[in-house]
Each structure stands twice: as structure tokens, then as C-alpha cells.
Amino acid sequence: MSAATLVILALVVAAAAFVQGTSGLGFALIVAPVAGLLQPALLPVFVLASMIPLNAYVAWRERHALDLRGAGWITVARLVATPGGLVLLWAVPEARLGVVVGVATVLAAAVSLAAPTFVPGRAAYLGAGLVTGLTETATGVGGPPLALVYQHRPPAELRSTVAVCFLVGEVVSLALLLGTGQGSPAQVGWAALFLPALAVGAWLSRLAHRRVDAARMRPLVLLFALVSGVVLILAP
Fold first, then answer.
1. Domain boundaries along the sequence of the chain
2. pLDDT (tens digit, 0 to 9) for every residue of the chain, 236 residues total?
3. How far apart are the C-alpha atoms of 188 and 190, rounded to whole Å?
């Protein structure tokens, strides 16, 4: 990996950690398409491994606002769908993984932007968990379905519940990917290398999460995801 790629990825990881720590989503939507363009061999393990410490931190910081009922239903569905994501990753040639990540990113962002207001129930929790289990295991992108469910809930509830759901699912997905040979310890090692950048972004989010208007940040994150996803699809 070149020095320029290292610097760019470090800046992107720090910015993405700040965005997710502040708004509750955005890390994978920002990092996955950029990593897919610069270093596609890192996906999806790099994104999953990077998000584990970030979500552990956010879940602890916002633990007072956790929606246990919703997190429970989402996690059950997420775990059920995880093997399907592994099959999807196995079926996609490595050379086409960037296109899959781009398509998943664009679809997720578009649905998030267009979704109407609704009150989530058990069916919404289960649906979000199933979709997240498939897409996050295969591509590293899984946040938008969870954000859709909680987008009209208090920001602290969204951040804490999404972080807990992510955390459990990411550990399981990462274990399956490594255990079946779809990922390597070296990819986890690259994620560890960027921990300082992740920590900087998370620390800045601690200072800003009560002050930044997450509702205004969300469309900007999704717009960035749309553009990045399209570039990834069109890239040779």
C-alpha cells in the first residue's frame, strides 16, 4: 500500500468515525467505497474490523438510551441472515466485488433518502436485521436499514441501538469470514493500523455529538455515499 493511499485512508477513517459517532451511521457508507477504489482486497474485513471498536465505544457512551426490544429482534434476524451474506461473498468474483459494494452503497443511500416517516414494529426490526446481515457480511455496508428503522427516534437512541446491533453482527460476520477463508488476519491487521485515526474521529465525535445537527449531516453522508458508489460502479 502506497504512502498516499495510507494517508487518504487514514483521513477517510477519521472522518467516517466522526460522522458515525455523531450521527449514528455513515462509517461503512464512507469507508467502503473509498477502500473499494483504493485497495479493494481489504473488503469487507477491513470495514467490519474497524467498526468493532468504534461501535463498542458508541454503545457504551450512549448506553442509557438503548432500545433493548428493537436491538433484540434486529440481532436475531441479523444472525440468521449472516450465512447468506457469506454465500453471496463466495459467489462474487473478487474482481467484481467493487461493483457489488458500489451497487449496495447506492441502493442503501437511495432508499434511506426516499424512505417515508413510519413507526417501527417487529416486522421492521426483523426486516432491517435480515437485510443488514446479508449486505454487511458481503460488502461491509449495512447501516441504512437500521437507520431507516430509527431515523425518527431520538438521536441517542439511534446511535446506541444501531451501535449494539452492529457490534454483535460484526463480531459474528468477522468470525465467519475468517473461519471460512473469506478473510485473512492480514486484513484485520490493516484495520488495526488505522486505529489511531479511528480514535481521533471517535474522540472528536464525543465533543460534538450533542452540538452537531445529525439530521442535517445525514443527507450529506448519503449524498457522498451515492457519488462514491456510482464512481465505484463505473471504475474499471
1. 3-234
2. 799 999 999 999 999 999 899 888 889 888 988 898 898 888 889 999 999 999 999 999 999 999 999 999 999 998 998 888 888 778 777 667 667 777 777 777 777 777 666 567 888 888 888 878 877 777 777 776 777 777 777 888 888 998 999 899 899 889 989 998 888 999 999 999 999 999 999 999 988 877 766 666 667 667 766 776 777 677 65
3. 5
Candidates 121, 117, 48; CA nearest to 86 is 48
CA distances from 24 to 3, 7, 158, 175 (A): 30, 25, 6, 24
Return phi, psi of residue 109, to 5°.
-65, -40
Please state, in angstroms and rounded to a whole number, the distance separating the CA atoms of residues 64 and 134.
Answer: 29
Peptide bond into 236 cis (omega under 30): no
Q: Which helix (H) or strand (E) holds 208?
A: helix 195-208
The percent helix, strand, coil of the chain (3-state, each to 5) is: 85, 0, 15
Q: What type of residue sits at position 84?
A: G
Total count of residues recorded for the chain: 236
Amino acid identity, position 109: A
Find out whether 139 and 103 touch, Cβ atoms under 8 Å: no
Q: pTM for this structure?
A: 0.81
Which residue type is seen at 3? A
- Compute the half-sphere exposure of residue 232: CA atoms within 13 Å on the CB side of its CA: 31
